[in-house]
Specification:
Layout lengths: L12 E12 L20 E9 L2 E6 L8 E7 L8 E14 L6 E7 L4 H20 L5 E2 L1
Antiparallel strand pairs: 1-2, 1-4, 1-7, 2-3, 3-6, 4-5, 5-6
Amino acid sequence: MTDSGLIVRRSVRYEISMPARLRVAPHHADALGFAKGVCGENRWIDISIIDFAAGGLGFIIEVFLPRNVDLELEIPSFLPGEAGTLLSCIVRVQRVQMTDRRPAYKVGAAFVDTSEAVMNDIEAMLDRLSEECDSELGGQSDA
């Protein structure tokens, strides 16, 4: 049988809406910089995560990011009464698509930091999302 070239998702993707922030990873900071009006303190840019899976995530951002740039990502706790960061890791931009509703970009990024601690945090995040989807009517996951 020949390979059809069809890419099949290998994990469940959770469609979500959650705030996070990112900045250009230090090893790419010389190649990509933003004006002061674009970034906040310490070069952080606010984003909205729109999907999350074991291999990466999708997000909306109001500035263009080139493919293959590495980013530092921080996702704050989204559960009531919890403080802190749920996930802090490096992701790599895989695809960028301009949205048609507003001047923004839909970005797909892959997790590139595969240390045990980060993988445990990703798994914990997936467990929380699974619980949220199971407990909320209308929660969706897409395989």
